[in-house]
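hi! just following up on the protien thing from before. the input was this:
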Amino acid sequence: MKNHFPLFRFLDGKKWLYNPILKKRFSNRPEERVRLRYVEFLLLESAFSKNRIGFEAPVRPTGAAHSLRADLVLYSDRMEPYILIECKSEDVKLTEQTAEQIARYNRELDASYLMITNGRQELWYELTDGTPRATVNPIPTVKKMADPATDPSYWTNRGFISSSSDIAIGKLASGMLHKIFSTADPASLQYLNLPSDIVPFLPGHYYRVLPAKNNFSVALTILNGGTGATLLTAAVNRGNENLGLLWIELDQILGPGIHQVSLISKNGHETKTLPPHFRAALVDQNRDFIKHITGQILNFF
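and the predicted 3d structure came back as:
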């Protein structure tokens, strides 16, 4: 699932997940985000077509009073259950117990492969004579995903760039996003469900968490905050202490005049002037872009 993100939609001031196969909105829950990230991989890089991907197939484990629902079932060319997938939240540790759970689910489906994922780790099992044995991912990558850095619509559909931003901002933000996420270790990619009552936008989204000097860390992203603007957003932490949240409206940095940076910290809500060298780093995006940006962000804290 590396570098794959689910689709999002904004409606009535809320941020919803969007399932491209069922064509339905879902609540923005951790397990659903993991499931739809895997669907993105299947649609963009594997040979599985939409009609071979099943959601919430009913299964009744042995001894259970009621049927449960399997997260994903991938079907063979003959439309027989081929792979059963169980999706857990990113903060759930995958254990032998979770493997036993999916094995019980499979007694009715009789799929050839089982997989459990929390979005960061995958455990694969192949059934041989009814016994699950650890194996590797059997799904070949048959399609090369187009470089999303050249396609702002990719990032717009996934909640990173506002659809109200113009083409120039879309291209600028796409380049930044590519630099932020293309080299990210999967462990550094996190969905931060930040509270929206402290800032005038929806700050919850996928961030890359970057370690910095003196025990600081910077969680960095660009996002559609649901207000019509595309925002470079950073949450700053030191040790176990959250120091604050910073954001810059990218829609205004290409224009002339004085540019602004906003932040929430222990001093409250402040608006400060964006230094020219910070703006230049955002626009130029040289090869040290990540290092320059995190350093500039820390200067405000």
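The radius of gyration is 21 Å.
The chain has two domains: 7-135, 148-298.
cheers
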